[in-house]
Structure formats: structure tokens, C-alpha cells
Specification:
Structural class: alpha+beta
Largest sheet: 3 strands, antiparallel
Shape: globular
Strand content: 5-15%
Order of helices and strands: HHHHHHHEHHHEHEEHEEEEEH
Length: 329
């Protein structure tokens, strides 16, 4: 199942693992790992600011000229994407404001991974996380898996004016330009996210493909001190640190309040993630979500193919499942 921004949590896990292993210092500038990134005033942007969506690079103003859901094959051109990010100007001084970096988050962090390890984020995920834990989970899904990928069925509400208002279409430079010049989002899902070109692409903020069992196992490892089935990847101290809220403020462009840890999101006024006070994860468009509850030792995942548009609230299906699970604890 392609689970949209659920991939942000998977990407955060990869960064967390690199930090645990001493290969990444999130307090250092992105430019120390990726020197070309510093153009147009971005020299002070740190890895932590990208993880917390405070980097000041939530958009690339000329998105529509080089990447669009009208052309899913464009998502395969990582070299062009890197160039676009290198050329992108800051929207604010790093660390001084917050806006959800819906697409740039993954590509910036993905290039940091490549510069450190020599592997793309998707390759590193397979070698160091998915294979050891026995997960069916990819960012950049190989063709041998394509016949198993479920077809997404978008809610008609994704083609409404309410959806475009939800995406803050007036964001400078056109945050939603990547959707295409004419398409509504429901049409874009049918056209692009059900296209094998998109499945093969590495879009670490938005196109992770996995099953619910695998996503729940990843969060179960986080919820159980960094160890699962005898394999230990993270320390409890690292997990506590990365689960600590770093940002608690309203989005600069759409006004919604966010509570953000290091790459993970916690419960907000408009979206509930689990029930415990130390619960964190990442939701995705259409209702998908994965989260960990550190106090309950619980890893949870829901990866539907029938997408539901639930602005301003948690998907009712997730609410019902969460209520049932916590009722059993």
C-alpha cells in the first residue's frame, strides 16, 4: 500500500538510526553533508530543522516546471530534484518559523543519507532496516513487487474546493503546483500514485509502500526500547530524545497547530495519534498512519487503499481501531 506521508516517519527512523550509529549529527548544517545545498542563503539550515519542518524550505517555487503529478516519471529523476532543492531560496530564516515541508522534507534528508552512506535512502532502508526486521517496506519499490501493490481509490471529496483550501493553495510559490496545472487531487491519485513510475521513485516524504504488519513492527521496535525479536537497532535514550516535542506552534501557511518531535508528529487539536502522552508517528493522506506508544509498548498501523478525506479530524476508521486496541490494554 502506498501510504503518502507515513513515509516521513520511516525516513525519520532511518535518520535516527544513522544518528545512533554516530554517522549523523542532526545539529550540523545540511551543507556539511551536502555542500551544494547551501546556495541562496541555505548555509545555516540544520538537519534538525528539516526534521522539524522549521528549515525554511517548504517549497521549491518552480515545482511545476520540473515535477508534477501530470508526469509521474519525473519523480524518478533524483538528479533534477536535487538541483531544484539546491537552487531553492529560503522562505524564512532557519529555525524562526514553522510550515509543514510536505515534499522537500524527504528529498533533503534522502540526499543527506546518500552523502553519508553512498546509498539512497531507499537502499539503506532495505539493507539496514527492512531486511533485518523482515519488513515488506520500500521507498522506491522494485518491479518484482508491483503486482502486489494495491490500487488506491480516492474519495471524491479530494476534488473539492475544501481540499484545496486544506492544502493552503496561496502558499508562496504555489505549494500545490506539483499537483499539476489542471488536475484535481483525486484525478492525480488515479493518474500518478497508481502509476508504476511513482512506485519506483524515491519520494521519502510521500510514497513509501508497505503493509500494515510491517509498519506496525517498525513502530513496535520504537515502542519497546529499540529491540524486536532479538534485533536491537536503537537505544531507549535515543528513542526518548527523538520522541520529545521540539515544535508546538501553528503552521505559517494553513494556520493549523502542530506538535512535532524529530521527524515524528504527536497528537494535535485537530488530529489524535494514539491515546497515550508519549505517543508519536506520522499520518498519511487518505487515512493511513503508523505510531508508537512508549508507555503501552504498542506499535500501530493502518494502511487503507480506500482513501477518506477527513479535514480537521482523525480518520474515523483509525479512531475506531485505536479505541478497540486501547480497550484491550
Amino acid at each position: 500500500m502506498l501510504a503518502f506521508s507515513v513515509a516521513k516517519g520511516i525516513t525519520a527512523f532511518v535518520m535516527q538510526l544513522l544518528a545512533e550509529r554516530g554517522q549523523l549529527d542532526i545539529g550540523r548544517p545540511v551543507g556539511e553533508y551536502w555542500p551544494e545545498f547551501v546556495q541562496n542563503g541555505k548555509g545555516a539550515v540544520t538537519v534538525e530543522q528539516v526534521l522539524t519542518h522549521t528549515a525554511g524550505v517548504p517549497i521549491v517555487p518552480d515545482y511545476r516546471d520540473w515535477i508534477s503529478l501530470d508526469r509521474p516519471e519525473a519523480y524518478l529523476d533524483l538528479a533534477r530534484i536535487r538541483q531544484g532543492l539546491e537552487d531553492a531560496p529560503l522562505q524564512w530564516e532557519p529555525g524562526t518559523d514553522f510550515a509543514y515541508h510536505s515534499t522537500t522534507y524527504g528529498w533533503i534528508l534522502g540526499e543527506v543519507v546518500r552523502r553519508i552512506t553512498g546509498k539512497t535512502l531507499g537502499e539503506y532502508l532495505q539493507d539496514e532496516v527492512a531486511a533485518p526486521l523482515g519488513l515488506d517496506m520500500w521507498i522506491g519499490t522494485p518491479e518484482r513487487v508491483h503486482e502486489r501493490v494495491a490500487t488506491l481509490i480516492p474519495d471524491p471529496a479530494y476534488d473539492s474546493d475544501d481540499f484545496y483550501e486544506h492544502l493552503a493553495p496561496d502558499l508562496p510559490g504555489g505549494q500545490t503546483a506539483f499537483l499539476g496545472r489542471e488536475r484535481r487531487f483525486g484525478e492525480a491519485v488515479l493518474h500518478a500514485y497508481n502509476d508504476p513510475h511513482m512506485w519506483r521513485a524515491e519520494h521519502p516524504a510521500g510514497n513509501g509502500i508497505m503493509d500494515a504488519r510491517s509498519l506496525a513492527r517498525l513502530y513496535a521496535l520504537l515502542a519497546n526500547g529499540g529491540e524486536l525479536d532479538g534485533l536491537k537497532l536503537l537505544s531507549p535514550e535515543t528513542i526518548d530524545d527523538w520522541a520529545t516535542i521540539r515544535v508546538d506552534r501553528n503552521d505559517l501557511y494553513d494556520g493549523r497547530d502542530f506538535r512535532v518531535a524529530l521527524g515524528y508528529i504527536s497528537t494535535m487539536s485537530w488530529y489524535e495519534i494514539g491515546r497515550g502522552p508519549r505517543t508519536f508517528g506520522d499520518p498519511g493522506m487518505g487515512g493511513a498512519i503508523g505510531y508508537a506508544d512508549l508507555d503501552a509498548g504498542l506499535g500501530f498501523a493502518f494502511t487503507p487503499n480506500r482513501m477518506v478525506f477527513s479535514p480537521g479530524k482523525t480518520d474515523p476508521r483509525v479512531d475506531a481501531l485505536t479505541e478497540a486496541i486501547y480497550g484491550c490494554l
